[in-house]
Give the backbone structure.
Amino acid sequence: ETGFKKAERIRKRDDESKSKQIASYKTIKALKNKYPIKWLCSVLGINRSSYYKWTNRKPSKRELENNALME
């Protein structure tokens, strides 16, 4: 396997992992009034500290640009 193909495979895997993580964060956010956050994080395999960091983060420059383009 060439270096380029290996790098591409790793990037795709990382993108999929990040997408699953964000989906888990959004699920927790949607269900946090019905179930304890501690329990939701445990079930989804997410660290509570990571969830809280995600909820308090500021949008990146790229996210802001993408949102502006979508308006």
The radius of gyration is 16 Å. The longest helix spans residues 3-31. Residues 59 and 65 are 10 Å apart (CA to CA).
